[in-house]
# Entry
Amino acid sequence: KPVLEMIGERLPNTLLLMITAELLIIILSITIGLYSALRPYSWFDNVVTSLSFVGYSMPVFWLALMLMYIFAVNFRRWGLPYLPTVGMFDPAIGKTPAELIKHMVLPVATLAIISTAGYSRFVRSSVIEVLGEDYVRTARAKGLRGMVVVFRHALPNAALPFITIIGLEIPFLLAGAVVTERIFAWPGMGRLFIDHIERADFPVLMGILMLIAFAVVIFQIITDVVYSFID
# Structure
């Protein structure tokens, strides 16, 4: 098969998994990080900080296997509704939206837990730093409401470093999550890459790496443009 044809078959599967995970990561990171920044050193902040260190320290393969053990093996043993662990759908049922969602839960959770743990701490520190700036104190001195100050003045500028990280990470979504896709037998780009490394199939590997390199350049330009709108 031509390399582009092979990539074209796997890329939609990877994008389905990775975009879902990335949207979840962004929403959770901003929500948790902002709430912690507005209540620093509260019980919520301390609990989230502790859980973040634990979550960020867990290896991807270990977390994936633990989620499979709890929500697939043990839930089935206990007679509870359990989650599937491999593939995109049950061949006996077909590729329905319900089957896709059910098969995406564990791999998306694996990706989201580790990234959210790190990114939420990053958002927290950025927001706390910005809240101490002169323009934020000026906005408060003018009598603006607290939420207006946070969402109109503080958060956009605090989000700039976070946007940098997301801009760097998005191109690698095209490559897929190598470990996660392999463990959950998800037929995406990451699994394609590993399978063809084992076969020493260099044309496929070169095609995937060229796609990533091109995406890095494009998304860095987009990130720079987004700065001008957010700042």
Remarks:
- The chain has nine helices and no strands.
- The radius of gyration is 21 Å.
